[in-house]
Amino acid sequence: MADFVDDVQIDSLLNKLHRLQGELIDEADSLKQAAQPVKLDQQSFGRVSRGEALQQQSIAKANLAQCQERIQQIDDALRKIDNENYGYCEACGEKIAVSRLIAKPESSFCLECQDKQEQNK
Ligand SMILES: [Zn+2]
Description:
By secondary structure, the chain is mainly alpha-helical. The protein contains 4 helices and no strands.
């Protein structure tokens, strides 16, 4: 088995990326609603206290940021497929393992570089 993506795999990853992007856009839409400024006079808050509402709002904001970051990564991956330079690590230029791309098609770093990045955070 080849260790680099072939055209058939690219096709299935492309489908996966489009589907994932659609899901994330939907998710971002509902998170945007949840991240709206807290209004206490609204019936919909029911018995939720102001503190809880604010906490939920900040969680929604964090999730929204994460969601938007992934949408961005997927955009980048789709652009790379278009330009036929998809599947290479942005840090070291090495090929990213197929298994990794299948698990996370928007990956722009190989496992090694991703680990390094996370350690630097
Ligand atoms: Zn790398």
